[in-house]
């Protein structure tokens, strides 16, 4: 497809429940968001970080050209974007700076900016636009500003019991399984200080027991996440941008960590994706000593051309995101010498504006101890093992994105 005009308007396999499956529901959401943004723009000045984003795009001819073409191509393909110009898009982004997602039993939009950008980002010009380093640095500022709002008390407008949008209505609490989490129903907003405090809610003691805590060769899930892919024979370098998306270790760990990547050459990678309603904290898959803990800046809305602008394209870019997206890397030197180091890569997707690491190099952790958390948004993670360490994986990815989440601290692999 050269210009986007022959792309079929259809359903997408949106993984994890971050957006509705039906395209017409997402289109209606975008148009409603655009109406709200226009109303706000008449009465409120734009946020500084959004003004800076607009200035960057307008002053860079290549960025401006690519974004205009991406928007035009998506509209020509028949998608209801809610915007047709850069200025209209910027107004929507500004509106989102004070937006907290309401609950919806039928059409939840957990990642509103992803909903707005999802079709321009997979048009031919959109691929180049969303890979630009300067753009991603500015998007990081925008998302961090939004994250600041979501960490404050004004973000709690939907943390109430009233249907249909309250997160503590009967429908929502059943969907979330709130009785498993630490909360205080007798307090305002059930004791949560902000939207992000609710999003990063913690399980009650005993809700997710560690599988076989004394069997150090049984490796457990670091997140509450559905199996996405299992791969063996990982290479130092690979063509992670092709459709098969093999894992490229040096890109995953970054070129500055080449020696670390070499130690995992020929090893195995387990990848799983998190869902909108689930737990978003990370836990140690093995017991051992933290040897590395660092953050990697990267892209936020970059998809893979090889998947194509079809109903599965953006969702199937998760292998690619391990090498290019914003992420946190934690390496644990397992107490069992035969296992050695285990790489834990927690990857932010779309609205994730911050990955928070709770541990430091030199710290010893037990299997099941918390390592950090995703502050907000869609996300995926990988466990990376050295060659000949894994005897067998105990979970199986399912095609079509229908795999149920593996509980955090539940078994995922058996070491030799």
Automatic annotation (TrEMBL):
One of its GO terms (molecular function) is phosphatidylserine decarboxylase activity. InterPro entries: PS_Dcarbxylase, PsiD-like. Keywords: Decarboxylase, Lyase, Pyruvate, Zymogen. Residues 48-175 form the L-tryptophan decarboxylase PsiD-like domain. It holds the Pfam family PS_Dcarbxylase. GO terms for biological process: phosphatidylethanolamine biosynthetic process. This is Phosphatidylserine decarboxylase. It comes from Trinickia symbiotica. The lineage of its organism: Bacteria, Pseudomonadati, Pseudomonadota, Betaproteobacteria, Burkholderiales.
């Amino acid at each position: 497809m050269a210009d986007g005009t022959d792309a079929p308007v259809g359903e997408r396999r949106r993984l994890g429940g971050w957006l509705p499956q039906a395209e017409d529901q997402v289109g209606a959401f975008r148009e409603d968001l655009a109406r709200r943004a226009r109303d706000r723009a008449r009465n409120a000045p734009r946020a500084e970080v959004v003004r800076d984003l607009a200035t960057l795009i307008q002053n860079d001819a290549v960025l401006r050209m690519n974004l205009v073409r991406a928007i035009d191509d998506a509209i020509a393909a028949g998608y209801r974007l809610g915007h047709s110009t850069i200025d209209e898009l910027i107004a929507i982004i500004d509106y989102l700076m004070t937006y907290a997602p309401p609950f919806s039993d039928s059409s939840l939009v957990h990642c509103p900016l992803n909903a707005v950008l999802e079709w321009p980002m997979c048009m031919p010009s959109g691929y180049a636009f969303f890979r630009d380093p300067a753009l991603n640095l500015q998007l990081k500022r925008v998302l961090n500003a939004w994250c600041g709002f979501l960490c404050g008390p004004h973000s709690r407008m939907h943390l109430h019991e009233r249907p249909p949008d309250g997160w503590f209505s009967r429908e929502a609490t059943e969907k979330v399984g709130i009785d498993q989490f630490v909360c205080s129903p007798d307090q305002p907003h059930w004791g949560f200080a902000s939207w992000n405090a609710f999003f990063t809610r913690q399980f009650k003691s005993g809700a997710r027991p560690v599988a076989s805590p004394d069997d150090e060769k049984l490796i457990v899930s670091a997140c509450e996440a559905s199996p996405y892919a299992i791969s063996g024979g990982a290479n130092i370098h690979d063509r992670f941008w092709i459709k098969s998306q093999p894992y490229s270790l040096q890109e995953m760990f970054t070129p500055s960590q080449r020696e670390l990547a070499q130690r995992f050459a020929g090893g195995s990678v387990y990848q799983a994706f998190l869902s909108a309603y689930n737990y978003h904290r990370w836990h140690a898959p093995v017991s051992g000593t933290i040897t590395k803990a660092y953050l990697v800046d990267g892209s936020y809305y970059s998809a893979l051309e090889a998947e194509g602008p079809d109903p599965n394209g953006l969702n199937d870019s998760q292998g690619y995101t391990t090498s290019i997206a914003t992420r946190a890397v934690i390496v644990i030197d397992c107490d069992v010498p035969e296992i050695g180091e285990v790489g834990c890569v927690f990857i932010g997707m779309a609205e994730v504006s911050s990955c928070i690491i709770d541990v430091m190099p030199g710290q010893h952790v037990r299997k099941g101890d918390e390592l950090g958390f995703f502050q907000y948004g869609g996300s995926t993670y990988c466990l990376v093992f050295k060659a000949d360490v894994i005897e067998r994986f105990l979970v199986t990815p399912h095609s079509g994105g229908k795999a149920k989440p593996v509980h955090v601290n539940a078994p995922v692999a058996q070491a030799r």
